[in-house]
Amino acid sequence: MFSIRALPGKRLTPVAIACLTGLASLATAGAAGAHAAEEPLTWRKCAQAAKNWPVAGDTRTECSTLTVPMDYANPQGRKIKIAVSRIKATDPGRRRGVLVISPGGPGVTNIDAPATYAAGGLGTLAADHDLIGFDPRGVGYSDKIKCDWGDPPPATSATSPKAQARAAFDQDAAYNKRCAAKDPGFVRQLTTTNIARDVDAIRAALGESKINFYGVSFGTAVGLNYRSLFDDRVNAMWVDSVMPPVIDLAAMDASADALNERRFTAFVPWLARHDTEYHFGTTDAMVRKTIFTLRDKLHRKPRKIDENTVINGEWVSQLLGGGPGSWVSSARDLATVREGGVPLSASPGPGPAKTFGFDDTSLGLNLIQYQAIFCNEGVGGRDFEQMWAAAQARKTAFPATGGYFERSGWCGQWPWPARPWKPVRGTSPLQLSGHLDEDVTPYAWAVEAWKAVGGTLLTVQDGAHASLRRLPCASKVIDFFRTGRTATGTCPGA
Is residue 491 scored above 60 in pLDDT? Predict the structure, then answer.
């Protein structure tokens, strides 16, 4: 999942953690998919068809567009176009069908996935599978709307943490109201379930009775929705770094806080062992006291760095929940702030990118699609006081890292109620893999999804989001798609 706040961040904050309408009947969805497939795909080399094609030197990938219903409940109504890509199997005599790749999001392009995966650890599958990519509705080269975030309000050190959070929430709410009003019919149909239906329209347009599917991060939600709707059209599906089975924004935040608190518990003795470098104390108790004193001081008196950046207590909490790979930079930045300096991580991230068709030049974050996925389908995020109370409860439960307010989706002023989805258990071959210590899609989400939808769960022993295809254990993925053999137990990580 691409998160945009303390996950992948609208403000691209340094901490990362980490979607879906009610399921329509299989008969209705299937009929809509068949209707959408009436238009044949016409292929051209992506490097020629797509302006600013993102894969340098790529001569293999072909691109096309597919017309689908905007609203599958009204298949004869307004149509939209979905951008599709493929790399045909290099050994047609051994071809096993298509492998649809959905590598993440929401809000970001996926169309370069065939080229990216053909060049990586799963590249051998390109010999006997057509690799299929696509830009989900609302992003990249597919139909979308553009709605800029606009200038943020000036940072201030004079208000309370709650007042600052309220101001940020209200800015999000104004964005939601303004951007959803640009094209309400389209924005309402930006859902993971509809993206899954678009995948089935792609399947039909390709002339395939079944697909193989490899999903990563938010792509796992697309895959599990697809399997819930079209179980009999799945040959085999692997999902890595798995989204939770139900999008409950408060529960997602709690999962992230629990993981980060465990990481902090390991960070403390490391700081004590490196006291000669960072001077936080030589015992766990001393380190905790020094850090919490610094955080409380910044809560009481935030430090304004520039017009858009303030160092406050929440900034400290974000640094405390990083994995071992971040400890050196976190310790350095905390020590710098303690001494009155400006840390490297204080610089503000870029705002959301603008983003029609293959003539568009921008493939950056489409923020309104990101918001729509979470707000059309996710529970929570609409009431500031409820969100603030939940954040304070997490702060009590997880005193070092809990209660960070800018994490999962904010849906203030979203014009429609949430229509959550609930995955359905199927019978088609399903393999899940979760990463034990990652924070973008915490391992607990993979366990929840496994319990909800079945299949087989493989545990990857690392904290690296979506790393499986780059590991030696990628051989298990290849074996699964060629033989159907599933994998249990553990896999060495990065």
Answer: yes
Nearest to 445 by CA among 252, 227, 216: 252
Q: Is the pLDDT of residue 267 over 60?
A: yes
- Distance CA(204)–CA(342), nearest Å, equals 56
| 58 and 202 part of one domain | yes
Q: Please check whether residues 86 and 163 belong to one and the same domain.
A: no
> What is the residue range of 223's domain?
26-145+185-242+419-492
My answer on whether 161 and 189 are in the same domain is: no
Judge whether 355 lies within some domain: no
Q: What is the pTM of this model?
A: 0.86
Q: Is 311 in contact with 301 (CB distance < 8 Å)?
A: no
Q: What is the pLDDT of residue 122?
A: 94
Q: What is the helix (H) or strand (E) element at residue 279, kind and residue range?
A: none
- The CA distances from residue 4 to 157, 217, 314, 403, in Å, are 23, 14, 16, 17
- In the chain, the number of structural domains is 2
Would you state the pLDDT for residue 341? Answer: 87
Q: Is the pLDDT of residue 338 over 60?
A: yes
For residue 403, name the pLDDT band (cuts at 50, 70, 90): confident
3-state secondary structure of 214: strand
Answer yes or no: do 48 and 156 share one domain.
no
Handedness of CA 217, 220, 222, 225 (dihedral sign): negative
Q: What pLDDT sits at residue 1? A: 64
Per-residue pLDDT at 337 = 92
Q: How far apart are CA 381 and CA 387, in angstroms?
A: 7
Residues 6+ apart with CB under 8 A from 114: 61, 85, 86, 87, 101, 126, 131, 132, 133
For residue 293, list its beta bridge partners: none
Cα-based angle 345, 435, 327 (whole degrees, multiple of 5)? 30
Is residue 362 predicted with pLDDT exceeding 60?
no
Tell me how far apart the alpha carbons of residues 439 and 282 are, in angstroms, rounded to a whole number.
28
Tokens of 55: 């894969």
Cα–Cα dist 55/113, whole Å: 10
Q: Is residue 222 part of a domain?
A: yes
Q: Which of 67-76, 296-305, 481-490 has the lowest mean pLDDT?
A: 296-305
Task: Give the whole-angstrom CA distance, residue 37 versus residue 77.
Answer: 15
Q: In terms of domains, do 401 and 483 share one?
A: no
* Rg of the chain taking only CA atoms, in angstroms: 23
3-state secondary structure of 393: helix
d(CA 276, CA 274): 5
- Report the alpha-carbon distance of residue 79 to residue 67 in Å, rounded: 6
